[in-house]
Amino acid sequence: MNLLRAFAFCGVSAATVVAAACSGSGPSSPSALPQLGPTSAPTASDSHTVSGEVDYATYYSSEHEFQVKASSGKTYWILTTSKTQWTGDGLALKVGDWISATGNWKTSDTLDASSISLNSSPQTTPAPTASASAAPAGGAPAHVQTGEYLLSSTEMTTNPSVYAPYLSWAYTVGGRAGITQAAGIKIVLYTDPIMPERGSYEYDTLNGSYQSARATTCSGSLVTTFNGTGLLSDPTKSAATPYFQSVMNNAVTTVEKANPGYAHPWDLIYVDDDGPLYGASATPCNFSPTTWGIAQDTALATTGQKFILNSLSVADSNVPTYVQRLAGSAIAGGEFEECFMTALWSSEEDAQLEAIALLKREGKAGGAGFWCYADNTTALAASSIAQRLYIYASFLLTYDPNYSVFQESFTTPSTFKVFPETGLVPMNPITTPTSVSGLATSTGAYMREYDACYYRGSYVGKCEIVVNPSTTSAVNVPNPWRLHHSMTLSGGGVLDGGTAWFADAAPAMMAPKSGLILTP
Fold this sequence. Notes:
alpha/beta, 8 helices, 24 strands, globular
């Protein structure tokens, strides 16, 4: 998502911003939320105990969840908090351990644990029969984490409070950062220290005071990018650290000066062009993606800032290498550009799974951990319903509401590119695989089941996310829960009359490159 290319696309002058550049009403339809399930929280019940073997576990922090298989073969999610009492070393919990958990039902198969006992052998206490599912207490966010470029002339003159109910993260004109952040939208600043193009601060700095940080071949020839209009920095060189510091100091100083009266008017800094060295004129001397990633993370850590790296748009075989860059102490997450817009479908799914798993292992807080950006299209959103469903279902197949961000670039009359489908928030996945292959079904479709799903905070019930990534073959729809309806979209963005509803019947077949969200 190079800055100058992005601004040329948007028709916005690069000189007017310090944050990243850009990357009609539809037909009449039913109301956005017919036939939703109950919205009231269940009443408290007597304590119950679940005993069994741990067959999936996430990381430990103040809150933690793991899955237990009872002697009956049924699996249960066990949720813990900092208040959960443990008998035994909870930090040592691993797959294969046997536990007994006592607490209250959150859903039909999810237990809020007040106490947990670790055991070394199977227990004979049978798992209880779960009651009918009720709306989980506490609800869910009004939408998944969303991203957008607030850079059109309309967006730059609209009070950001208009966008705040639908938007989590934004790139915006430098002078708008403070007021946008104050409206509750987190701000990302754009930088491109890796492959800067002529005319940018990064290029002038790398070609000026820090020339020794430029990448060269082993014979000493300068490595260029973008057909000779760009340079490539080498993070393994000693001058790279002060070069990175200069770039970040400039970005921060610029936004601070543009927003007097606002303290820290940014939340993350975006580092563009951080994946494979596409378009480089030659391979730099002793280049190694792993070595460069470690050196870059070390240099970024000296700046005192937090970053999201545009590094994840790679083939499946390279996903682990570039996901590992997110382990750096200053790194909050990574972006996959053209997310679910290319032939790299399994790479995109695995990158999301692996990125989230790494961030959790590292104990990093939620936020922009995996940024899925479906860009490089100007198609009208209202005419792209099937593609939008495919992209969004693919995103939900492997997402985590605490770590995943969703952004699209379809065109809307309002110029605001956030869509009604983002209000569907699945919670409590039944399984979390290490690879998307773990979600494959016998029909050829991929499916993930969620025990509690919401639309704009209202409880919908269970839902199944189903995707057919085949470009040639229709497949049968797997529907093990025998859900009756599917989410249907109409129109464009959330500010253009776009709607989502859940009254249409669940289909039996799926076309190639299609997605479904099935509900009760």
